[in-house]
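User: For my dataset I need records formatted as: sequence, then C-alpha cells, nothing else. Please produce one.
Assistant:
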Amino acid sequence: MVTALRAAFPDHGIIGEDGVEPGADAAHVWLVDGLDGTSNFAHGIPWYCVSVALRCREHGADEPVAAAVFDPVHDELWSAGRGRGATGNGVVLKVDHTDTVARAVVVSQIQSSDPQKIAAFAAMFETLMNAAGGVRFPGAPALILSHIAAGHFTAYVERAMASWDISAGQLILEEAGGLLTDFTGRRVNSADVTDVVATNGPIHDELLAMLNR
C-alpha cells in the first residue's frame, strides 16, 4: 500500500503504525493502517480492516479530505470525500436517529496494560453499562467509526487514539452526519494523539456530560 501511494503521490508524506516517510509536500499527508484490528486478525476473529486517509494541512487547518476503510472479511468498502458524502459499497451512508444514551449501542475500549488506565477505563465502562442500551468492545476503531456512519452503532469512546486509527473513520462518520470530538467537546482537527467521543450527533451532548460527570 505504501509503495502504491508513493508511486501515485511521490511528494506526499506517509504516516502509519510502521513509521513515517516524509515528503516534499508537507501539506498533504497520508495516514495508513494496513491492519486495524491486529489482535482480532491474529486470533481469527473476523473484525479487522485496512484504513487509509489523506489529511490536508492548508490555511491553518489539518483535515482528512479523502478516506477509505476496507473490510476484507465482508468485502465492504467504506469511503468518503470532504463535502462529497460517504458510502458503503456505493450506498450512501447516514447515521441513525437514536436520541438518548439509554437506547444507544456504544463502543468503548482500551489499548493499555497500565493498571491505573485500566482502572479508569473500567469505571467508565461501568458508567456506560448502567446507562446505555448496549456496550460493545470489538476492536478496529476505523471499522467502528464506519459502522456508526452506517447506523449500526450509535457511539464510540476511547482514550489516546493515534491519527492513523481514526482519520479515515472520522471523515466517513462526519460525512454521514455524525460528530467526532475529544472529551471536552472540541472537534478533532489535528493529527495529534487524542481522546475520542464519536456519535451519531443527537446523543453527543448527553454522552459527553455523562463521561465528564
